[in-house]
Design goal:
358 residues, Rieske Iron-sulfur Protein, alpha+beta, 2 domains, Rng_hydr_dOase-A, 29% strand, seven-stranded antiparallel sheet, single chain, 2Fe-2S, globular, 16 strands
Amino acid sequence: MKSNISPEYYYSESIFQKEKLIFKNHWHFFGFKTQLTKHNDYLTRTIADTPVLVQNIKGEIMAFLNVCSHRFSILQQEASGNRPLVCPYHGWSYNQDGIPTGIPKKPLFQNFSSNELCELSLKSYQISFCGNLCFVNLSNSKHSLNDYLGDYFNELEDLSLSTQEMIDINQLDIKANWKIIVENTLESYHVGLIHTNTFKKLGASGLNFNFTSFHSSWDADLLIKRTDDSLKKIENIFAPRKYYINGYKHFLIFPNLLISTTHGSSYNFSLIEPLSPNETRFNSYVFLAYIKDDAKRAFVSAYKQTVIEFNREVFGEDKAICQLVQKGVNHTNLSGVLSLEEERVHAFQNTYIKLIQK
């Protein structure tokens, strides 16, 4: 198979600007519902240059432009936290509808009518959940999250609700185009050389790929089985749970969310955020599966540390090779070729190129 993307797509500033429409027009993973359980819990992200906040306001989880209507300060400045929806500049506060309800020294302003206050509302965005996963859509698309995720919705719902404890957040700034990083995760062809002492030892194998209109997945057999004596204790600790698999599974939720799990006992959610044509922020969130018995949690500390170290080492190896690819892609006119093991790369590129050329 020939690659669908020529080298310039990995470094061109003009193409990078066009790509922002992909992120604006599709559902974008934002975070986890368990991060928004308390009044005033919030998350922030920048999506295609747009600062966005998601906040729990008196039990309602809403998504707004993260910009004050008064003098345009950023409202919530941290990536996450718990703080009222109040501007740090002049103290304007907002309710769950984004309407300013607290204006210091209000008599010094004109007498705002109800309509005028509504006109000063924060711009709101569509927000929806798939189990524990929170998504935001900046467009006025009529396609629901359920429609967007399609056949994967129910499985991802079960998978996300099988998680319990977030054990690690790993953020890496990688000097490579975001598509290079996504494509790297979609194939195992590189595993033998890049992950010799890490992922290769799991023995993930096979070409059992599944494709939808936007997304894809890989079901892989592993050398280590859930029924092996070495895993029986771990399996007992994490049973029962909603999501069981016999091996390894990896999802791409287009354009930039990657989800993987080994045996359904540990999970990784990776969000790939473009910063420039040549730089990307890689965000990894690692979870353990649900443990019913509180007493059993004391026995997983060693397993927890192993999972954290394994993921960090694998992603460090990926960072190094992706940066080498970025250096190389600037010096070639070849489009490259893809093997059957890289079929998911081909599908991702095909979806991407159709959208970028609209």
